[in-house]
Amino acid sequence: MSAITSQTFNHGPALNIPRGAQLGADLFFAAGRLLSRLIKGDARPAAQMSRLAEADQVRELARHWERTDPGFAADLRAAAARHESDVHFSA
Prior knowledge:
The protein is an all-alpha fold and 91 residues long. Helix content is 56%, strand content 0%. The protein has three helices and no strands. Helix 2 runs antiparallel to helix 3. It is elongated and about 85 Å long. The N and C termini lie far apart (75 Å). 3% of the residues are buried.
């Protein structure tokens, strides 16, 4: 004697994003970006900074790390020198 068993599975409706949710999310993130800019003082990329000024900032960071990690400080100074001279070595 053999028995055949069958089962029927009902699938729920497909999930859709509720109307207006995408617009609400976009407005939320836009407000967050605006608030962030207001708090940080318009944090746009500093494209106006010269290569010399950028290299000086890296050298200042190297001075900060000199006592605790002299190897890292040396790497930072070398990177500043390469950045300042605009010479990039490829490995």
